């Protein structure tokens, strides 16, 4: 089991200029519990967080191209996201 906080780090812990990748995981429009992985541009595992009770997740990352992978019972889905320095990339993942 992952020791990360459900949903990822709290937004109040972000510093000015922090690059944020966040979003939600749903199935048929309903939030779903599971895990979300962050993979770098080469596909290497970087981080993992459990989703919150409302399917939310958040990562702080370097700028660049990332893959966000949702892993839920019976399904998985990937989304590619480009994060910019100091920006916030929103990712909606339907599984």
UniProtKB/TrEMBL annotation:
It holds the Pfam family DUF1416. InterPro entries: DUF1416, Ig-like_fold. Residues 12-25 have a biased composition (Polar residues). It comes from the Bacteria. Residues 1-25 are annotated as: Disordered. This is DUF1416 domain-containing protein. It comes from Streptomyces gamaensis.
